[in-house]
Structures are given as structure tokens and as C-alpha cells.
From TrEMBL, chains A, B, C, D:
Residues 5-132 form the Gfo/Idh/MocA-like oxidoreductase N-terminal domain. It comes from Clostridium algifaecis. The lineage of its organism: Bacteria, Bacillati, Bacillota, Clostridia, Eubacteriales. The keyword Ribonucleoprotein does not apply. This is Dehydrogenase. Transmembrane segments: none annotated. Pfam families: GFO_IDH_MocA (PF01408), GFO_IDH_MocA_C3 (PF22725). Keywords: Oxidoreductase. InterPro entries: Gfo/Idh/MocA-like_OxRdtase_N (IPR000683), Gfo/Idh/MocA_oxidrdct_glycsds (IPR050463), GFO_IDH_MocA-like_dom (IPR055170), NAD(P)-bd_dom_sf (IPR036291).
Length: 378, 378, 378, 378
């Protein structure tokens, strides 16, 4: 019989809904061995929203105070899906109570605070997971394999970008994403951090960075249709050069006004024996080149992902049958449950998340100082 | 409050599981307006399987006799997910009882029997849906739009193929797919029928066909590892030329031993004003060319599907965020529920299914007579 | 010192100019060992054109009677670049005089006449070359290698098309291409014959064919801007199924009204061990899949052609440095010179050309009889 | 009748041969109006080479002293195709004599010297052309058009790279490319300068740069097969961020050890209204996205270049008929002749070349100082 994993969720918005749906899919697909998610209590600051969402999502109880979640005996994992600015406070409180925590990314809006959470999590020795869903993609698993197995040789370069054009239209009004206090940063935190998560997993630590950032649309209507304009405080675009501890170099960037790019997280990893490329708009494919192939037959291979790659085989029995973007979250949640239930290893712990948040902070700093900045070690 | 749609399912295998999961996802994604699926009774010939699957899938009751499903007052829709050879008998019995039926494809193993089912369904005036899931893809919706809107002009050609290489290995043992009585046909019925469903939806009726078929691996082990060999009776490959009622011509084919092709349902539609192409291995993209574009800027457009295309917007808010192959089934099931609950139109009725089964029968006949054969009208 | 190869050219139009330029490039690139082309005499029925072109192209003499070319002691090779309808008469006369002949394709407008030329050429034992330039492409050389080496295993399928949209516009006036007596056929002879030449080289003989053809634009202005319309007599589109002597099957087609396709000679060769694809719009690439690759790293390889492939290395020292469409003709002419001078083997002799013309005739016949037709052996 | 353009060539190596062949092709393709190239005198330091090449290339005279070329009354244009390190000295001497000069790139190994040449050329008011052949590509012409016409809106980003893997193998011995005195720089000067030439033409001036460089293979055999190793002094890889005067930003790079990349000069230009991409391995294509397209039909257009784009129409009558890498040089030489003969405008004058050489110097400096460096204006 399946062990129960009792979820206390903080936040009842779009991301909460996605988590609930992913718990259910994960349990259905991976089966009993990962533990059965049980929806114990849902918190939202808005009483109406807490109540109706609890019913819709299948939670037994609801509250408007996150302490009720943290203090509940019915909760094994505190699942934090609030707006970004609240992650730190809630996660810290939960950890200090000795609760296991599964938080959406980012852990906090500052490198320091995220490092603090990682430290507490380690001291408290509880399960701690931060939701960088792209780390769990079959494509990422395959790229990690290519690097770790040595098939690509010594890695010389890791180039990447995460480009979208969703904010290209200047009539799109101001929102939390544009305000520094609420978002911490713009394209970097929102999109670029995903790129950093893949980089961190595959390449390890970045030693220093050198960045430049731009706000291309400096003013936006304060609300839809308004002629009153407010200031955009966070970057539309950021580019940085990274120097990796392993000796490699990278050019990375992110834009939210990248015309024509819809979900273009593109990566190219060049090693002395091979090169791999990937683009999230085609998330079921990785291209790879092996220098050792006979030259007459040599070229980039368009590998359609399949059961050989990460958790793909949990979803489909053969390659070429596409997984979705949302399936990444299902894989993540399955690993959350499995790790909690069975003690299996997991990549995206708070230390991992703190490393990314520290990179984000350092990159932002470099964009201001216009100099190479070291990424703090911890 | 949501209307209940009570499901009686016949068959407890892999496809049954997929239907159940799709009902739940459809309800979660499309919401209450499409009706709430309720899992009333599950039938399987194997008692143990019926019992355990009923529990796992969430059915209230189980049985080993499909008549219990058909006769149940708790059942609104009889959902048939048995092996292909049994679809006809069960669907017919259900229709004659006046039950609504949702059957996996094909309706039967013969054109005649499928036509008979279509006729009965019409007489009984009940809901009747056959599960050609690719008809509901956003990609198909977009190609249909391109043709219907006149953007492609008068259609001259519809070329397509559905290629996989899953049966390339001669050591894969005999299975129902290889036996004519159980499968009706090989690559044509299994894969090519999906291509025909897209063709039927977008292009309308085929007038006549001219086919050639091959069995490349004529003998296979009777079971895994056995040295005893049995005959493969169904085609590994079939190719046919189609003459459409609308004046267009097509070269179509299907292979289950198409080395390197994993899920390659490829289509090219050429009209006097434009051309569209698609490949299921990249199911979130359609390429389209418009002759009217200024020549200096003219070329095939790689359209990443998005909320403009079919039901994509039910899943994601912006283009470039990939849907999965499985999401097609979710869309289908959502339309099944919506059509049943609200009387909305649907494409894949039994007449539609019977047209495809009639084409299949005619193509097989032509492969034997080695002549052009007319597709029977009904 | 280089041996001289004295050219007598019949025809002073666009193709003549291309041949002259290719002779010069070939000699410059391949060097003295292939023989030095010397331009002895040029014939054109139009005196003015003969005279001015002779000067422009560098011919020593000119004439308006092709017999002067055939009878000239200064001519080693009679190079025929007239309109198609005259190839047969001139080639026959030259062969009967014992002259070596290099004729543009097709050899004649009928299978029978081309067979007759092949027979005479053999009896006279002279050099005889027909200009199917795509046979000499690096891409074709590589595909031939893949098949001959056994890397693709036993070939099951050869699919291909040659599509252009140059005649899509109905206001383009009637020309020789549209008139049966002058052109023999339409899309098939003009474009499809190139596809057949690649097929013949790689796959060997076709046993029988089954075709359908269409004239989509049945009337065109008799001249540009005219309102007077004339009948188009040759097919805009033809599709045929081919049954190869080696047991493989093919779906092939050609269209001159294929919207969006500019120079789309596409090929797919499926064997039991691998599959290769090619498209002339990207003539410096071949995609190939090897079933024997480890499944985790397996996918179509995008091979950028290079010095390993055919005569590429004569042009560039490394792969990825694109050759042009015109370079194919240079390679052909280099082989013409080399074969004549040094007696090296060549593929595109008159027998090869007659086989293609026989296929063309058989395909046209099948499009009329609407039946499978055998390709005559000779 | 055609005006003669008398060429005095300095250098008899591979590049000299390429120039001669391009002069001849250019004259043959573009015709008399651009002037007829006449090969007056060829200089090479090696007497034997000068003599034999003069004969082979068709020069009337030869010499081992470049002053003979500069001082010759039979020379209109001094064409410099020596090793890079000698360009400056010869070009300067020629300019000071009032000769027109066509020099291969780079003008010199330092920004300062190139600026000096540009200044002298201006003072002397003679024809001065530097051979950045990629500026004349149809693809470049089209990208320039997209930017200049405003079709892409305000340009936000220009990203690019020029990657090859020709020097990936550590057993390739030391050559001039690896020695600072002879080459000036490594991947940057050799490859990256071409990227800079496209950038300069399309984007205008770079204001400041920030670079990082690497030597991945620090020692190589002093000659093929030797076990004695020598130091590689020039970078294998360089990456830089560029800040453009027009407000745009760019991440650019170049590697000569980029595994799998054969001739990958890739560019992406993002503007507020559209985005264009290009890759030299497919030099007959540009991809372009227009934000103004209706969203349902919107996507990157794969434009096969044709007569609408630059000088393509001089080579082929329709799109999809590929030009070669070498054709770029033919276009360049045609413009050299045309500009000299008819006084038509040209892009790649010495000032243009000096700007690129100044960028190269500044980028190298930044890689040493590890700071943003301003590109000197002149």
C-alpha cells in the first residue's frame, strides 16, 4: 500500500493549480511507490479564494494564515506557490519549524537570503526542494549524460539564451514583473534563471560574470488602456559572459522582448569530442555531434528523445511521441514525492536554488558595475 | 453545477487507462461546462483485471459481461476500448439498446460493418463518436482553417505518410497486429488510418485509390525468443495514390518498418495560393507558404502553434509551450463530453469513421487487384 | 602537356553558354590531366546568333549547318545543346559518322529513339555521354555510397519528388514546354527525368510503373499579355508508383505548379539498416540515419558534404563551404573531358539516358491507360 | 566595347588563383559593362612560383619585386593577395604612388596602420577596396535591406558567431595562424573579422566591447608528425559583448575549435518589429519573422534567396538554385571592376576595413585588460 504524503499548500493561484494537477498526474503515472499525495490544507490571503480553491483542488481544509499550514500536524510537505516576494519568509518559517519544504523558484529575491535558507535547511536536515522544472526534462537528462559520460570530451563552451517576446507590445501594462521590489529582476530572474538552472546542473559552478542589461520599454501604462504611465524598473534584456570553474566559457542572455522567440531556451555545449544543442520550442529533441564518427558519415544527429532519456519512458513507450512542457512539472513533482517517500537523491535542493539566486544577484551587480564580478562561494 | 456524464467502459487495458486519465484531465482543464465524468462500471473479460482496474481507475462497479454495461441505467456513454476485433459487436449491441457510444477506432474490421454501425447510429439518433484523436490536434485545426478559409486556394495535392520503425527488428514476435483476423490490416489500419482521418477531415472524400503493399518481414518468432516462426499476414508497408472528389491528387503511404522514422505522420497540402506541411514528430508546428507574400520576403513560415489554433489555448496561454501527444486524447475526450452534455457539433461521428474504414477496405482491395478501385459511397 | 579536346557545339543558346563556361571552369579546377577543351566550331540555325556567340564563347569557326560540325576534322566531341526536339537527329547523324557525342538530356522525345541511339553508340564504340548533371552531385555520390556499401541495408523504398512553382502563374504564356511535339512531356520530362536519373543510378532499373497526371492550367495566353488563349498539352503534375527490380517500391512525382517549392528535388531512401534523405534546395547536405547507432544517441545525422563525398574536394578543402547548383555541371563536364581523354568510366552513357527516356515513355503511357505498365528491357 | 582594367597582382598563392578565377567569372557573368580584366603582371617573392603562376594564371609578365607592380604603367589596380603580414607595406607603397588598390583583408595587423592606409587612400583619392567577401553575399544584402527598410523596426540586438572546427585536432602543426607576429590574432582576425564586416555593414559602428579569449590547445607540433612542440600564441576562441552606437547590444564570438561547426557564421538580428537569422552553412537562406503578420499565420519565414536579393539574379533566374561560397568572391570582384570602371559606389573601402581592424584591436585589448574598451573613432 502506498504511503501518504500530506501536502500543505501556500498559495491558491495558477501555480497552485498546476502543482495539484501535477501531483495527481505524477501519482497516476509513476504509481504507488512514489507515495500518494493527500491535499490537507490550502492557504490563501484571500478568504474567498482560499475557500473556493480548496474545494476545487480537493483540499480538506483552508486558511488565510500560512502559519496554520506550517503548524498543522496533517502536513508533511509545505508547498509554496505564492508570488515570488513571499517565498523566503514562508520557507524560513517552515524550515525553522522543522517542516519539509517544496518551494517554487526563486527561493528569495536575494542571493544572501537564499543562502540563509539553504543553510537552515541543511541544519534542520529536512527535505528541501526548489522547483526548477527544466532540470528534470528528458532533454536536460540527456545533455547531462553527454557531459558526464565524457562523450563530449572536455567542455569548452556553454552558450545559451532564454528568449520570449511576450512583453514586446508597449501597451501591455505594468505588473509585478516590472517592479524591482516584487520581482527582484526582470528577464534574468523570470527566464534566465531557468537557463542558469540547466547550466548549474550540467556545468557546475560559475566563477565570475560580466553583464550588460537594457530596459527597452522604460514606461508602460499603469493599467490596461490607461494613458497614465509608470516606470519599468526591471531589465527587458540581459546578456552576460560566464567563466566556469571547470575552465569553460559561456555567453548567455535572456530577453522578454525577443521578437519572434516564443519559448526559446536555446543551449549549445561544445566539448573537445562533441557538441550538443537544444531549444525548448522543440523540447523533445536534442542535436548532438560526435567528432569520433567517421568523417564521411558525420553530422549533427537530431535525436528524438525516448525511453533512453531521463523519465521519458514513464510517459511513452517509444521515441517520437511528444511530451509536453507541462510534463516537466509532473516529472518534478514525481521526484519530490519519490525523494520524500523513499529518500531518493534529488538535484534541486535549496543549496542548488541558492547557487542560482546568487548567480542572479552577481549578474545584476555586474550589469551595474560594468565589471567582472566573482560569484560568491558558500 | 456540472452535469454528470456517466461512463460505462468496455475494456480495461492500456487504452482504458488512457481514456480515464483523459476524462479527468479534460474535466480539470475545460471545467464544469463540459460535464463531469463519472466512472460507473468497467467491463473486462478477465475477472481479476476487471476488479483491480475498476479500483485503480475509480469505477464503482465491474463486470465480465459487456451486456451489463450496455444495460446499466447508470451509464450514459458506452466507451469501447477493447481490442479492435470486438468494437463492432459491442458498439452494435449498445446502439441497438439506444445507448450513446464512444468507440476507439476502428469501428470494425470491414467497411461494410462500419457503414452498418453508422446507419444504426443515425437511426437511433444517439451520440456516436469514434476516437480518431489526431483530428482534434491544434495542427489539424490550423490546416483545416488554411484550406477552408481559402488561404491555400484550390487544393491540388494532398501527400502524406505515417511511418514508424517499431517493427523493424525481425526478432519482435508475432502479435495480434500481424494476424489478419485480429487486426484487419497492418500498417494501413494501425497507422495509415490516422492519416486518412486527417485527410477525410481536411480534404473530404476520396473517389478512388490505387495501392501496392509489401510484407518485408514475412515470418516472425511465435513468441519472444522462440525459434518457431509464424506467418505475418498483414502488410508492413502500403502505398497508394488517391484521387479526391474535389479534384486533387494524393500520394499516401504507411510503413511500420520505416527505419529512423519514429512517429512520422507527415503531410503536405499544395494549393494554388499556398502550401502547408506538418510532421507529427513536431506536433506543435505547421509550416505554411503563401504565394501572395511579397517575393522578397516569401518563404515557408514555421508557425509555432498557439492559442489561435484549435484548442491549444485551453492548455497554454501563449505559443511555443509544447502540448504533448497525449493532450490530443484529452482534447478528444473534452469534445466527447461537451458534445454529449451540450449538444455541440463533432467531427468524428460513426459516419466519419465508416468513411475511413471504407477507404481502408478499398485500399486493401486495390493492393490485391492491382487496379484503381472506387471508394463506395454511402 | 595537356591533350586537346576539340569541341564542336551544336546550339548557341543559354545551355551552350553554360557548357562553355563549365568547360573552362572544369579545366581550371581539375587541371591538365583531364584534357584541355578547345572550342573549334559552333553551329546555330540563326546566322547572326552563330556568329556573335562564336566570338563571345571563343569558338574559332561558326556555321548554320550541323553537318559542318559533324564532318569537321577539328572536332573530337559533338556537343549537342539544341532544343530537345533536335537532339535525336543530330546525335544519330554524329554517331553514324563515328563521332563522339555529348548530348544534353533527353536523348530524344521517345523511348524507342533513345534506345536506337544507345544501340548505335555501342556499335560505333564511341564516347557517348548524356548530360544528367545531378548524377554527378556530391550528394548523389554519397547516397550511392550509402546504398552500395550496404550501410543502409536492403533498400525497401525510394520516394522522391521534383517540385517547382515556376509555372504557377496562369498568365505565363504558352511556350515549347507546353507543346507535346516540342517537349515530349511536361513536368515529367523537364523535372522528373532528373529524379529518374538519380533513381537509375542509385536503385537500378524500374520494373513497372503506375501513374496519374494532371494539367491544372489547361489554357495559357499564346503570348505574354495576350487575351488569346492556347491549349497546354503537357502535364503540370505527374505522380507514379514504381516497382523496382531490386524489390523496392517508390512513390515519385513531379510538379511545375508546386506552390512554394522552388527547386525541391527531394529524395528519401529507406533500407533495413538506415535511411537517407536529400533536398536539392540544400544541395550541400544529406541526412542519414543508422539503425545500428546506440539508441540513446541515435537520430538523423545532418551531414554537411565535404571532401569525402564525390568530387567535392576538387572545389573546397573542407566541408561546410557550399558548392553551387552550377558546380554540378562543372563536375559533369570534367568527367566528360576525363572520360574522353583518359578512358575513365562514366555513368551517364546513352544506355543510361535511354533507360530514363524509356521510363518517361512508360510513365506517360500508364497515366493514359491508368494501369500498371512494364518498363521495356533492352 | 569593354574598357580594360589592368591588374597587377602581388602574391601568387591560393588566394591569387581565386582572384584570377573570380575576375574571369565576373567578366563572363556580369559582361562587358564592368570592364575587362587584363592580367598585366604578377609578383611573387619566389621566382619559380612567380614564373609558373604567371603562365598558369595568364599574366603577361612576372617579377619578384612588388615595386615593379606598383611602378608599372600597365597596371590600373594593384591586387594584394600576399600573406596578411605584408598587406600594409605593399598597400601603403601603392597608395603613395597613387595607384588604386584592391587588398585582401585585413589591411594590416593593427588598427592604427589600417587607419593610416584609409587616410592615405582618402588623400590620394584613388580606388581602394578591401576584400571582405561576405559583405557582398545575397544573404547580407537581404539582411541589410530588412534593417534599412525598417521592416525589423529599431534593432535591439545583433548576436553572431563564426565557428569552425578545422583546428580541433591537436596534432595539426603550428602554422602562421598560430604566431602573433604573422597573424595578428587567431580566431578573431581569421574568422571573427568576417562577422565584424557583416556587423559593420548592417549595424554601423560598435562603441565599446568587452572580451574574453582562450587558447585551448596551447602547444602544437612544430611540424606535422614532429614530437617537438611550439607555443600557440593566438586565441582559439574569443567572445565579446558589443555595445553599438545605435543603442543595440550584441554577443559575438568566434572559435576555430568549435566541434561540429564547419563554416558556421551565424547571425541573429532582433528588432522591435522583426527578427532575422542566417547561417553561412546554408548561405542561400535567410529566416525572417515579422511581428505584424497575423498571429494565426505568424512564424519565421525560411526565405530561399533569389533574384530579389543582392546580386543573386546575375547568377540564376529563380530562387532555390544555390549559389556557392566561391560566388561571393565573384560578386566582390565584379563590384571591384564595376566601381573602378564606372565609378559606382562600394561598401568595402579602406575606411570600412580600418574600422574592422580597429574593432579587432580593441577586442584583443579588452581580452587582456578584462574591461570594457572604447573603439577608437576616426
Amino acid at each position: 500500500m502506498s504511503k501518504k504524503v500530506r501536502i500543505g499548500m501556500v498559495g491558491a493561484g495558477w501555480m497552485g493549480r498546476a502543482h495539484v494537477s501535477s501531483y495527481m498526474s505524477a501519482y497516476s503515472i509513476y504509481g504507488e511507490k512514489i507515495g500518494e499525495p493527500v491535499f490537507s490544507i490550502l492557504m490563501d490571503v484571500n478568504e474567498e479564494s482560499a475557500k473556493s480553491s480548496a474545494e476545487k483542488f480537493g483540499f480538506k481544509k483552508w486558511t488565510t494564515d500560512y502559519n496554520d499550514v506550517i503548524n498543522s500536524d496533517d502536513v508533511d510537505i509545505v508547498d509554496i506557490v505564492t508570488p515570488n516576494a513571499f517565498h523566503y519568509e514562508i520557507a524560513k518559517a517552515a524550515l525553522l519549524k522543522g517542516k519539509s519544504v517544496y518551494s517554487e523558484k526563486p527561493l528569495s529575491l536575494s542571493g544572501k537570503q537564499s543562502q540563509e535558507l539553504a543553510k537552515i535547511a541543511k541544519e534542520k536536515n529536512v527535505f528541501n526542494y526548489v522547483g526548477f522544472n527544466m532540470v528534470m526534462m528528458p532533454a536536460t537528462a540527456y545533455m547531462k549524460h553527454l557531459v558526464e559520460s565524457g562523450k563530449l570530451g572536455q567542455i569548452m563552451r556553454f552558450d545559451g539564451r532564454y528568449d520570449q517576446d511576450m512583453l514586446l507590445d508597449p501597451s501591455i501594462p505594468l505588473a509585478w514583473r516590472h517592479i524591482k521590489k516584487q520581482a527582484g529582476s526582470g528577464a534574468l530572474g523570470d527566464l534566465g534563471s531557468h537557463l542558469l538552472s540547466i547550466s548549474q546542473y550540467i556545468m557546475g559552478d560559475i566563477e565570475s560574470v560580466n553583464a550588460i542589461s537594457k530596459i527597452y520599454i522604460p514606461k508602460r501604462p499603469i493599467k490596461a488602456g490607461s494613458t497614465k504611465m509608470g516606470n519599468v524598473e526591471t531589465e527587458d534584456y540581459i546578456a552576460f559572459t560566464a567563466s566556469y570553474k571547470n575552465g569553460a566559457t559561456g555567453q548567455l542572455s535572456s530577453s522578454r522582448v525577443a521578437t519572434g522567440r516564443k519559448n526559446y531556451l536555446g543551449v549549445e555545449i561544445q566539448g573537445t569530442l562533441g557538441t550538443a544543442t537544444f531549444n525548448l520550442e522543440r523540447l523533445n529533441e536534442v542535436n548532438v555531434y560526435f567528432h569520433k564518427d567517421k568523417s564521411i558519415d558525420r553530422g549533427f544527429r537530431n535525436v528524438l528523445l525516448g525511453p533512453d532519456h531521463g523519465d521519458y519512458g514513464m510517459f511513452q513507450p517509444a521515441s517520437g511521441i511528444e511530451l509536453s512542457y507541462n510534463d516537466q512539472k509532473v516529472i518534478e513533482v514525481a521526484h519530490v514525492l519519490d525523494a520524500f517517500t523513499n529518500g531518493t537523491d534529488y538535484v534541486c535542493n535549496f543549496k542548488f536554488g541558492a547557487k542560482i539566486d546568487t548567480c542572479v544577484a552577481t549578474i545584476l551587480k555586474s550589469a551595474e558595475t560594468k565589471q567582472w564580478e566573482k560569484v560568491e562561494e558558500f
